[in-house]
Amino acid sequence: MRTAVVGAGPSGLYVGIALARRGHPVTVVDRDPGPAADGSWARRGVMQFHHPHAFRQQAGEALAAEMPDVWEALLAAGAEPVLPPGVPEQPNQVTGLRCRRMVFERALRAAAEQQPGLELRLGHADRVCAERGRASGLLVDGARLDADLVIDASGRAGRLGRELRAAGTDRDCGLAYVSRQYRLRPGAEPGPMNSPIGLVSFYPGYLTIVFPHDNGVFSTLVARAGTDRELAGLRHVEAFDAAARAIPPLAAWTDPDRSEPLTGVLPGGRLYNSYQGQLDDSGRVALPGLVFLGDAVCTTNPAAGRGVSTSLLQARALIRLLGEQPADLVGCAETFDGWCTEHIRPWFADHVRTDTDQIRRWAGGKIDLDRPLPSDLIVSAAQADPSMMPVVGPYLGMQAPPASLDAVQQRAREIYAGGWRPPVPAGPSRDELAELVTAAAPG
After folding, report:
1. Same structural domain for residues 58 and 99?
2. What are the two backbone dihedrals, phi and then psi, of residue 86, each rounded to the nearest 5 degrees?
3. N or C: fewer beta carbons within 10 Å in the chain?
4. Rounded to whole angstroms, what are the CA distances from 335 to 284, 289, 338, 342, 398?
């Protein structure tokens, strides 16, 4: 089965390598030429490429299932294995990874370049070609690329064939963020951590996260409400540095005696939770032989680090279905759409609800006990009652779906009804941070 994959990001490379290893000729089309000769990699058009990432256990499981050589390459490149909360360490256990997105994609791309039967083609996919009511390939920079199957893994911003599907759902997360990369100085120990992904701190009106990566590199992130124009000044180095000194979790990591900055302040784009299935308005496969994958199906607030995980979960499901239904691409796409509806869409819905309520609370709203609590409040309530962790832990590790939290919804409501509230870490209030940013920002 000749396969054309649009997009050489994690999901496109993963599915391309996996299909090539099953004997299918694969061409992966992307406008990005890959790393430069000096090792740098701009990855233009992929805003999140240089921002912090956390690779969950699902990513490790995906690599172990299809390409353990990539897993070994990542470890050799300095990626650090990490387990989700509540999971005991066992011999030969598959874990998540702490590493930069660039390191992760570099290992996948190297495997793709060496994979027999897979071609990486530099170019722009202009449109999907169709004959007799089914996909027959791509037009790439005006030249025809024939294929029996076209997989669109071009990301959320891609527009290839999107008009064929029923309209998706886009919800602004209500958040904006900036980040900055640092490297630990020789001999310096990492700073404090309170979760597998690093150090997460929630304040009324903003949040901060420190993401340890590979080879002593880490990222700091500050997220704010998208409408908070005063904190938008964090994009300036002077203001970001002042904030990092004032916010204890960031100060601990960015102390000049411990680390030095590698980049300037990296502004993030607008954040969306989005979902769009495979079917058209009539409930049929949009175009037989065309399948949408990864961010072309679902994106979620990146602060939770679920994006690559949901994409690779999709890729594994698609690979399995293509093996089970190789001659029925319509049935395969229908089954894949149903699988995504059951296993991926709940994470989208979970983020929509949680993000909406968090922004409401950041604006001064109280915890609403007249409605079911959103997931973040249920998770926080486990601080007051650790007996909830056998339910909360698997949800945090994406080993159980958001609906699993229903089992402790009532207990969480009782905790909040009794007056308990999540403790606020030491650090400036939102208004104090705004004053600091305003004073430090140039002009």
Report:
1. yes
2. 80, 5
3. C
4. 12, 13, 5, 11, 22
- Average pLDDT (122-132) is 94
How far apart are alpha carbons 175 and 418 in whole angstroms? 30
pLDDT tens digits, 169-222:
988 888 999 999 999 999 999 999 988 889 999 999 999 999 999 999 999 999
The DSSP call for residue 163 is: G
Q: What long-range pairs does 354-358 form, CB within 8 A, spacing at least 24? A: 355/171, 355/173, 355/174, 355/175, 355/273, 355/301, 356/171, 356/174, 358/174
Q: How far apart are CA 32 and CA 42, in angstroms?
A: 9
Strand boundaries in 278-377, DSSP class E: 290-292, 298-299
Alpha-carbon span 11 to 152, nearest angstrom: 10
**114: enclosing H helix or E strand:** helix 101-114
Q: How far apart are the first and last CA of the chain?
A: 59
Confidence at residue 87, expressed as pLDDT on a 0 to 100 scale: 61
- Please say whether the beta carbons of 8 and 109 come within 8 A: yes
Residue 281 lies in a domain: yes
The reply to whether the predicted model has a pTM over 0.85 is yes
pLDDT in tens, 415-431: 999 999 999 999 999 99
Q: Give the relative orientation of helices 329-343 and 307-324 as an angle to the nearest 10 degrees.
A: 150
Structure tokens at 186: 């020789």
Classify residue 185: in a domain, yes or no: yes
32-36, 318-322, 420-424 — which is least confidently predicted?
A: 32-36
The sign of the CA dihedral 62, 66, 70, 72 is positive
- Tens of pLDDT, residue by residue over 51-105, are 888 899 999 999 999 999 999 999 999 999 987 655 666 666 678 899 999 999 9
- State the residue range of the domain holding 381: 368-420
C-alpha 120/C-alpha 8 separation (Å) is 8
Q: Tokens at residue 318, please?
A: 């698609």
How far apart CA 198 and CA 196 sit, in angstroms, is 6
Please tell me whether residues 145 and 99 are part of one structural domain. yes
- The answer to whether residues 20 and 115 touch, using CB atoms and an 8 Å cutoff, is yes
The beta strand positions in 158-277, using DSSP E, are 169-172, 175-184, 199-203, 206-212, 217-225, 259-261, 266-267, 272-275
Single-letter code of the amino acid located at 421: R
How is residue 56 written in tokens?
């969950």
Look-up of token digits 């938008």 = 232
Share of the chain above pLDDT 70, in %: 97
Name the 3-class secondary structure at 209.
strand
